[in-house]
Amino acid sequence: MNKPLLNSLLQCEDIDISFGNHQVLNNLHMDLYPGEILSILGPSGCGKTTLLRIIAGLENPSRGTIYLKNQKIFDESTNLEASKRNIGMIFQDYALFPHLSVEKNILFGISHLNSKIQAENLERVQKLTRLDGLLKRYPHELSGGQQQRVAIARTLATRPNVLLMDEPFSNLDASLRLTVRMEIEEILRESDTATIFVTHDREEAFSIADRVAVMTGGSIKQIGPPDQIYFWPNSKETALMSGSCNFVDGIIAGDYVKTSIGMLPLRITAEFSEKEKVQVAIRHTDLSMEPTPSGENTVVRKDFRGDETIFWVETTEKELIQCKHKIHTTLFPGLKVKLSPVQYTKFNVFAAETT
Amino acid sequence: MVFTRSIFLAITVTLLSVVIAVPITWLTTRTNLPYRKLWSVLTFLPLVVPSYVGAYIVISFVGKGGLLYDILNPILGIEGIPTMYGYYGSLLTLSFLSYPYIILTIRSNISNVDVSGEETAMLMGLNKFQTFIKVTIPSIKSAIFSGSLLVALYTLSDFGAVSLLRYKTFTWSIFNQYESGFDRNTAALLSLALFVMATLFMVFEIFIRGNKKYYKNSSNASRKLPTIDIGVWKWPAAGFCALVSLISVVIPLLVLLYWLVRGLYFGEEATTLTAEPNHILAFNSITVSTLTAAVVVALSLPVGYLSVRRPSVLTNIIEKMCFTGYALPSIAVSLSLVFFGAKIGTPIYQSTLLLVIACAVLYMPTGLGAIRSSMIQISPRYEESSMTLGKNKINSAILTNLPLMKSGIIMAAATVFLITMKELPAVLLLAPLDFHTLTTAIWSFTSEAFFARAAIPSLLLIFLSSIPLTMIVLKNNIFNSLGSE
To answer: Chain A residues with CB inside 8 Å of B379's CB?
Structure first.
C-alpha cells in the first residue's frame, strides 16, 4: 500500500474527507488505467462529485494519497494545485464561459501556446467533437448536447491526463441521452483519454464503461467490469445498485438454497456452510410465474408499465417478491401462482442480517 | 427633545413611505392600471432629488413669501398659509423623496412572486383584495422591512432637509454644536449616540425579520405573471399614482423652473454668490463623485470576491464592518474625519482626498452590496473550470468573474456616483476651503433664501444625477417586466 501500482495512471489511497460533522468519503481506494473509461455508480449524496473534485484538485481531502502517472500529487506534505495537474473536469452544467464564443472557450486553456499550435489543437478537437459551423456561436445559442461537446472539446484541447465528467447525461433530454452517450463514447475512445464519469443511473454506468465502481456511503464497495458487478455482486448494496433486486430468507442446502418458494440453485457456494441462514438475491427477471390453483403464492399487486408488467407476489412466508413479466392480461391480483427459477439462472446469497 | 424627535420622524417617514410605495409597486407591476409605465418611471425620479433640494422646493413653494402665496394671495386673498417649517414639512419632504427606496427593494420581489400561492388562495375562495393582503404582502414582507430600514436610516441621518426646515433633530444638533460653538466633544458624543440609534434600527430590523427566507416553490421562474384586473378601481388607483407623481416630481420641477425663469427675468444674478460659475461647481461635483465611485469599486471587488468565494472569519469581519457603514450617518463620519484630519492626518486635512475617503467610507456598503449580489450570481464552476484548464487561481478568478460582473460593476459605480452627487454634510465639513460643489452652492443659497439663485445648480444636479439613474434602471431591466404596451 501507498506505493503506486504498476501501469496505473491515477491512484487514490485512503481518501478521507468530511464537511462539518458529516464524513463524506471514508477510506476510499480507487485506480484508473490508461485509456480506460471508468464509471462511478452510486446514489445521490454518496460523495461521487466530491471524489471527482478531490482528483481535480478543487477540494483537499483530510487524509490520503493520490498518484498521477506514478508521481505523488497529494499527501500530507504534497499538494499539486489544480492548474498544474492537467486533469480536465466537465461539470454537470458544463460551465462554458458565457461571455466567450465556442472558439474562445476552446482556446481558453491553451491561450499561452503559440498561435500555430493553438490552431492545430482547435482543428483536432473540433473534428473530434464535430463542432463544425458552431465555432462563432455563443454558449446560450447551443443545445444541451452541443454545449456538452464544446465542454469536452475545451478540455481535450489541453490534452488532459485524465478527463473527469460529473453526471454527464443528467442535463439532457431523455430522448437524446442514448445518442449522446454513444457519441461521447466514440469521442473518448478516439482521443484515447482515460475518463472517470459519475452517474446514479446504472444503465449509463454499464453501457459505456470498461469498469464500474459501485460507491455507497463514501467508499467504493466493488470495482470491476459491468457484467461482473451485475452477476457477482459482493454485497447486498452492490446487488441493489447494479439492478432491481428482492431479498428473501434461505438456508444453504448443498448447491441449493432452500426458500419459501422452493430450492434455488446457488452461484457461489464456498463461503457458506451447510444449513447456514442466508439471504438470497432475486432479480425481477429471475423467476417465472405460472398461474395454477394449487400454487402457494398470491399475486397482490400488478403494475402495468408498457414494455413489461411488475407483479408483487406474496409467498407462504409473507415475503413480497417483485417479478417482471411481459404478459399482463391473464395475470391479476388474487391469483394463485407457482414461482420457479428461469432456466440456467443461478442465485447469489449473502450472510443473513444479524438483528 | 432631539432624541425623540429624530426617532419619531424616522418612524413616521418610514410608515408613510411604505403606505405610498407598496400600493404603487403592486399596481404598476401586477395590475391593469392605466399608464403603468409612466407611473413606474415617474415614481423613480425622486431618487435624484437631494433632501435639501426637496426642502428648498417645499419652503419656496409653500412658505412665507413663497410661490403658492404669490399665486393665491391676489386671487383668493388668502393671507395665512400653514407654515411648512418643522415636523410636517420634514415628514412630507422626506417621505415623498424616500418612498422610491422601498419601491426599489420590493419591486423585483413583487414581480417575481410565486403565483401558485396566490392561485391557491383564490381557489380557496379569497377575493383579489384578501389575496393581496394575506398572500402577496406576507411574501414580500422581508423586502418591505429591508426597504423600511433604508428609509429609516436615510431619515435618521438626513441633515439637509431637517436643517432647512428648521426641525431640530439629532443631525441638526450635531452640526450646530460643531459649527457654532466648536464644541467638538458634545458633537462627538451626539454622533456616537446617533450611530448607536442607527445600529439599533438595524438590529431591530434583523430581529423582526428573523432569518426567514421566502422561497419560490415552483421552478419555472419565467412564467408570465397574470395581470390582475382591478376593474373600476383602476381610475382611483391611477389618480393615486398621479397625485404621488404630482407631489414628488411634477410640482418640484415646475417650482425649480419657475425660480429659474424668474431669476433670469428679473435679472437676478443667475450665476453664483461664490466665486465659481456653475460649470466649475458641476465639474467639482462630478470629480468627487467619480473618484468616490472608482475607489469604492476598486475596494469592493476584492472584498466582495473574498466574502463570496472564500468565506472565512476575517472576510466575514471585513464584510460586516463594511455593512455597519449603513448605520453610519454621514454627519457622524464626516465629523470623525474632521477630528482625524485635525489631529493625525493634517497633511490631507481639507484636501479633496479626505473628502473622497469620507464618501468612500459612507458608500462602501452600497457599492459592496451591488458587487456582492452580482458576484453571488456567478457560478464558482467557471473559475474551477479555468483552474482545471491550467490557469492559476488569481488568473482564473479574474478571467472568469470580471467579464461577467461588468453590469454589476456599472451598477455599483452608477449608484455610488448618484448618491455622492447628493452628499451634503461630508462636503460641507471636509471640502477644501475654496472648493465648492453643486451641493454646497445649493446649500448656501437656500439657507439664505436666495431661491432663484439655487435653481440652476439644483436643476444641474438633478440632470447630472439622472444619467446614472437611467443606467441603473436600464441595467436592472426594471421596466422589462412590463413588456410592450
So the answer is: 93, 95
Q: Is residue B475 within 8 Å of residue B291, measured between CB atoms? A: no
Q: Do B388 and A82 touch (CB under 8 A)?
A: yes
Region A71-77: mean pLDDT is 92
Flag whether pLDDT at B80 surpasses 70: no
Contact: B390, A84; criterion CB under 8 Å:
yes
Average pLDDT in chain B: 83
Residue B293: the pLDDT is 96
**Which among A86, A89, A99 has CB closest to B404?**
A99
CA closest to A155 among chain B residues: B389
Percent of chain B at pLDDT above 70?
87
Q: Tell me whether A113 touches chain B (CB under 8 Å).
A: no
State pTM to two decimals: 0.80
Query: Is the CB of residue A57 less than 8 Å away from at least one CB of chain B?
Result: yes
ipTM of the complex: 0.83
The pLDDT value given to residue B310: 83
Q: Exposed, middle or buried, B378 (CB in 10 Å: 0-12/13-18/19+)? A: buried
The answer to whether A88 contacts chain B (CB < 8 Å) is yes
β-partners of residue A280 are A248, A349
> Residue B484 has what pLDDT?
32
Q: What average pLDDT does the segment B118-145 reach?
A: 82
Q: How far apart are CA B439 and CA B427, in angstroms?
A: 8
Residue B472 pLDDT more than 80? no
Q: What is the pLDDT of residue B387?
A: 94
DSSP A347: B
Cβ of residue B25 closer than 8 Å to a chain A Cβ: no
CB pair distance less than 8 Å for A98 and B404:
yes
Residue B213 has pLDDT above 80, yes or no: no
Stretch (H or E) spanning B109: helix B87-111
Q: Residues 373 to 392 of B: which have CB under 8 A from any A CB?
A: 379, 381-382, 384-392
pLDDT at site B267: 62
Tell me if residue A333 falls in helix, strand or coil. coil
CA-CA-CA-CA torsion sign (B45, B50, B55, B56): negative
Smallest Cβ–Cβ distance between A95 and the set B385, B390, B393 belongs to B385
Q: Which chain A residues are closer than 8 Å to B404 by Cβ?
A: 98-99
Concatenate the DSSP letters of all residues of A138-207 into one string.
-GGGS-HHHHHHHHHHHHHTT--SEEEEESTTTTS-HHHHHHHHHHHHHHHHHHT-EEEEEES-HHHHHH
Is A140 within 8 Å of chain B by CB?
A: no
- Are A25 and A61 contacting, i.e. CB atoms less than 8 angstroms apart? yes
